[in-house]
Design goal:
Shape: globular
Helix content: 25-40%
Oligomer: single chain
Number of helices: 11
Structural class: alpha/beta
Number of domains: 1
Number of strands: 12
Order of helices and strands: HHEHHEHHEHEHEEEEEEHEHEH
Largest sheet: 6 strands, parallel
Strand content: 15-25%
């Protein structure tokens, strides 16, 4: 039986083909606080169901993420683990890190960020900024053979010297965070489309160059963050939508159950953020 337009829209197959959107599902772990905090009162990250009371319980969620990669062949996950979190997991849960490495080598799992902890760089000294990358990147190189080249993170971590530091460590891309940030134009411009729902950049204007105080430049991706309301708005814009763009979902590490998988897979193609940015930029 031939499906009608409404049925195709509801199941998402037509939307996926028409918009060609990619989704970088970037998991933001809370392992560091859960593993190390023992203060009073208990931090929210150690309270279920959002968090977990201890590292052993939280690692079970990571294991279920690995199970989801086995269950859904087209699923791809990106992680913003810090170096110190990966060191702790390699020490206490080596089987999990070994499994993560296997999925990384298969291209189903990738890493972004690359810092040693999860710092708010704008309040740290220049030496602390430098050592965050010096120590953090070495951990991923040692455990996974991975050279992280995408500076993407959930929380704030931008300042005017960041492009210079990142370039020194071999980064290729910066990504706008979902937390608040400020953009100041020094040269050139971008075009916007606007309505009562706000303003957005027009198609193919989603890359800028972030410029450091010394003039160092690094490609800066103005991310589209996945949400149900924003998704509806983009669908309504149709041809004016950011077609072929990379959407980013940056939750505190979530379960990938059937409902979550179906919600995203019906509209998006899962992707590794680094690979998708490189393809989009070139």
């Amino acid at each position: 039986m031939v499906k009608n337009l409404r049925e195709l829209l509801e199941e998402g197959s037509l939307l996926k083909k028409h918009f060609r959107w990619k989704l970088a599902l970037c998991q933001h772990p809370m392992y560091l606080l859960i593993d190390e905090d023992r203060g009073v009162p208990t931090v929210g990250e150690r309270i279920p169901p959002w968090g977990a009371p201890n590292a052993a319980e939280y690692v079970k969620r990571i294991k279920r993420n690995m199970d989801a990669l086995k269950k859904y062949p087209d699923l791809i996950l990106n992680y913003q683990f810090s170096g110190v979190e990966m060191e702790a997991m390699a020490r206490d849960f080596p089987d999990v890190v070994k499994q993560m490495k296997k999925f990384y080598e298969k291209g189903l799992l990738d890493f972004v960020g690359g810092t040693f902890s999860q710092p708010h760089f704008q309040i740290l000294s220049s030496e602390s900024n430098w050592r965050q990358f010096e120590y953090g990147l070495n951990v991923f190189k040692k455990l996974f053979g991975k050279k992280i080249k995408v500076y993407a993170r959930q929380e704030t971590g931008l300042h005017q010297q960041m492009p210079q530091i990142l370039k020194k460590f071999g980064y290729e891309f910066m990504v706008a965070p979902p937390f608040p940030w400020v953009l100041e134009f020094h040269d050139g411009s971008i075009e916007l489309t606007a309505s009562s729902q706000g303003a957005d950049i027009i198609p193919n204007n989603d890359f800028l160059y972030a410029v450091a105080l010394d003039g160092t430049e690094l490609p800066f991706y103005i991310a589209v963050f996945a949400s149900s309301e924003y998704l509806k708005k983009e669908m309504q814009k149709d041809l004016y939508s950011k077609r072929s763009s990379i959407w980013i979902y940056f939750p505190d590490l979530i379960e990938i159950d059937q409902k979550t998988y179906d919600k995203f897979s019906r509209v998006f193609e899962f992707c590794r953020l680094e690979q998708a940015l490189r393809e989009r930029f070139t």
